[in-house]
C-alpha cells in the first residue's frame, strides 16, 4: 500500500475552505491556557469544517507563534471570535438556536456515544480549562452535558485530544443526518 503524496490529497485552498459548506458545529473554549492545545483544536476544527471557534476568558488569540505551531494555518481558515465571558457566548448561542453542550464529567451527563443531534440541529460544544474544566455557571447554562467514558487510572484527557474525539464523532453524526 503506497502512501499518498500531499498533491494527491485533494485539499481545499484557504479560499475554497472559506466558501465551503460548514458543519453546523461551534466550539467554545472556556479559559483554555495552553497555546498548543488551542492550535491543535483549530487544526481539528479545520479538518471537519467547523463553523466557528469562540475563544473566551484567558484563552489566547491568534496570531501567536505557539498557536501557529500546532494549528498549521488553521487560524487562517476557521472563523473565530474572542469574548471575555463564556456565559455570554453560551447565552448568545442559545438565542441563535444552538444546542449547547458542556464536555465535562458531571452528574446526569450523557455519554458521547449516546448523544445524537436531531436533523437540522446546530450544536455548540464547550471545552474548559485544563485544570478546572468548564466553569460551573457555564455547565449550568448548557442544555446538555456530554462525557467521554474512560477506563484507565486517569480521569481526564488532554483537551485537544478530547476536542478531536468529540469533533470527529459529531461531524460523523451530523453528516449522516444531512445525507
Describe the structure.
- The protein is an alpha/beta fold and 179 residues long.
- It has a single domain (14-178), classed as SPOUT methyltransferase, trefoil knot domain (Alpha/beta knot), CATH 3.40.1280.
- The chain is 35% helix and 22% strand.
- It has helices spanning 14-19, 35-47, 65-71, 86-95, 136-141, 159-178, and strands at residues 23-30, 50-56, 79-83, 98-103, 110-111, 122-128, 144-147.
- Helix 2 runs parallel beside helix 3 and helix 2 packs parallel to helix 6 (159-178).
- The model has no long low-confidence stretch (mean pLDDT 97).
SSE order and pairing:
Elements: H1 14-19, E1 23-30, H2 35-47, E2 50-56, H3 65-71, E3 79-83, H4 86-95, E4 98-103, E5 110-111, E6 122-128, H5 136-141, E7 144-147, H6 159-178
Parallel strand pairs: 1-2, 1-6, 2-3, 4-6, 4-7, 5-7
Helix pairs in contact: 2-3, 2-6
Give a concise summary:
By secondary structure, the chain is α/β, with parallel strands linked by helices. The protein has six helices and seven strands; from the N terminus they run H-E-H-E-H-E-H-E-E-E-H-E-H. The protein has helices at residues 14-19, 35-47, 65-71, 86-95, 136-141, 159-178; strands spanning 23-30, 50-56, 79-83, 98-103, 110-111, 122-128, 144-147.
